[in-house]
Amino acid sequence: MPRPERAAPAAAPWKGPLAGVRVLDLTRVLAGPLTTQFLSDLGAEVLKLEPPGKGDETRGFAPFVGGESHYFLGLNRGKRSLVVDLRDPEGAEILRGLVATVDVLVENFRPGVMNRLGLGAEALMALNPRLIYCAISGFGLTGPLSGMPSFDIVTQAMTGVMSVNGEKGGAPVKLGLPIGDMSGGIFGAIAILSALHERHTTGRGRLIDASLYDGTMSLLGYLSQLAFLTGQDPRPMGSAHPSVVPYDAFPASDGAIVIACLADHFWPRLCTALGCDELGADPGLATMAQRRERRAEIEPRIATITRTRTVAEWQRVLQEHDIPHAPVLGVQDALAHPHARAREMVVEVEHPRAGPIRMLGRPVKFPGAEQAPLEPPPCLGEHTNEVLREMLGYDESRIASLRNRGVIHCGAGE
Fold this sequence. Notes:
By secondary structure, this protein is an alpha/beta fold. It has 2 domains: 22-219 and 350-409, Crotonobetainyl-coa:carnitine coa-transferase, domain 1 (Rossmann fold, 3-Layer(aba) Sandwich); 247-329, formyl-coa transferase, domain 3. Helix content is 37%, strand content 15%. The chain has helices spanning 31-41, 70-73, 89-99, 113-116, 121-127, 152-158, 179-202, 212-218, 222-230, 266-274, 277-281, 288-293, 295-306, 311-320, 331-336, 338-342, 384-392, 396-404, and strands at residues 22-25, 45-50, 64-65, 68-69, 80-84, 104-107, 132-137, 207-211, 247-252, 255-260, 325-327, 346-351, 355-360, 408-409. Helix 1 packs across helix 7 and helix 7 packs across helix 8. It starts with 21 loop residues before the first strand and ends in a 5-residue tail after the last strand. Keywords: Transferase. This is CoA transferase. It comes from Roseomonas populi. InterPro entries: CoA-transferase_III_domain, CoA-Trfase_fam_III, CoA-Trfase_III_dom3_sf, CoA-Trfase_III_dom_1_sf.
């Protein structure tokens, strides 16, 4: 009698293109955790090593849900947390053991801190020549400001970003988004991906020097060329564009609507949509350069018209005429928008302490290859035991000894 066929085991969910890459994350606050969160989103295994006590400083940032900080939850999804005191010789030895098992190490201490611990790039890359060591700092590893402390607002001020943000004629204003920190995180991730690619050829790792300063300054883009060309500082313009007219947020009867005519062919269409065809027919307004010169005439005229209808009415009219536009949404409305849901930019996960929580989704998709669901951010020290057991072969008595002496912390339930 033939044996019944066994069902084939279900294939493991695809983690992403970085599946098999292991990252040791020594970062805290924003820039570094954002870098490693991107790598986790792409499928890497990220081991977040935190100091004893409170762990990553952002774990203490209110408000909280289930005892967990909103700030930490927003930057650490999908990671595993272990708590190790790197100032203790046995803690430093744990780090060295882990370095032998990982592909990438990311830290965002002030330059020199890791060297003083005997755990700098040169020492660790000698243990693992394939190690990609990414140092993220405020001002970089070299230069006259390299040792200076820095936070997002410092970066925005030093790179000229604050000087171009705000209303016309107003005081400089920090961007609402922490663009200084985020630029360090984004460019740190790009650099790591580039170094991983290079390692396929060379077989060797590389030291990466990523700074908030360099990353944010690079985002000046065409504004830097404007300064080079004119010899003058670009000034704050609110939501307007220094060269493109109209390109601004205009008042509606119940909110604001963005209108963006970045090409000349949109101008006559916009005038028809607004019911001012005479402006569209004016040969003195046909080009971007002409409209820029007559900005003071055009923008108040458009604002007078847009005030007469609601945002929803203008959305319908502008869509009918194929004009680039958008309502100015609050964060809650943006997160609740049908497109955000359709793009899986808002997902729900089950956190071990906070219960079901909503989080931002992955910013990059891979059509035709569905990734495994996102995992929640870790509790402090949640994975210490299992990482030491699985990766370093520590037995329970050794783990207990380290825990009792405060070298490690194993989290609730361990």
